[in-house]
Design goal:
The chain is built from two helices and eleven strands, in the order E-E-E-E-E-E-E-E-E-E-E-H-H. By secondary structure, it is mainly beta.
């Protein structure tokens, strides 16, 4: 028995011109089970994507104007009837001249990795992203000076809440938090019993 999940189309236009891409995810695969991840560019036939591999159908220097990618995941149960699980499907597209997009706070608690310059290969957690000023604030300064033209990859962060899971990653079905369970203070509090006293004459 198998099941299929189709993700909303992802707009690659902000990346401008295609350079490279990677697709990664977290999976738990029972014996005999299979996970098939496929991608379709602008409605073309779906092609298989390997974990850590690139998006099929895109080539270096391709224009990404009005280019959309749709992902489809097919899960097949293992020999003992256990279903495999997949979460955190994360496509990263690197484009020439690409600029960061996304609403304010979209990259908060995410990461930034330098791909050129004196800090090439180094990464740092993003403290704050302001879309109006196009400013990225890192939690700590980089060890080497930054220079105009240094390039980087950035990925959105997760605030571990329902809104981020639903609105940023469209992954609410795999949300494992318990936001409505009372905290320790509420669980260990002693009931405040007020006694009503009435006087009759």
């Amino acid at each position: 028995m198998s099941g299929c999940i189709r993700y909303p189309a992802l707009d690659l236009t902000p990346a401008l011109t295609y350079k490279s891409s990677t697709v990664d995810w977290i999976q738990v695969l029972p014996a005999g089970g299979t996970i098939l991840v496929e991608a379709s560019v602008n409605g073309d036939d779906f092609g298989a994507v390997s974990k850590g591999g690139s998006i099929p159908g895109l080539s270096a220097s391709d224009s990404l104007a009005s280019v959309y990618v749709t992902f489809k995941v097919t899960l097949t149960k293992g020999t003992n009837g256990t279903s495999p699980t997949l979460s955190g499907l994360t496509p990263q597209v690197i484009g020439e001249g690409a600029q960061l997009t996304g609403a304010t706070a979209y990259y908060n608690f995410g990461g930034l990795k330098w791909t050129s310059g004196l800090n090439k290969g180094r990464a740092m957690e993003v403290k704050r992203w302001d879309a109006s000023t196009r400013t990225v604030v890192l939690f700590l300064p980089m060890p080497n000076l930054l220079a105009v033209g240094d390039t980087f990859e950035a990925y959105p962060g997760c605030a571990k809440d329902i809104a981020t899971c639903r609105d940023t990653f469209d992954n609410i079905l795999n949300f494992r938090g318990e936001p409505y369970v009372p905290g320790q203070d509420a669980l260990t509090a002693i009931a405040d019993v007020k006694q009503n006293t009435s006087v009759q004459s």
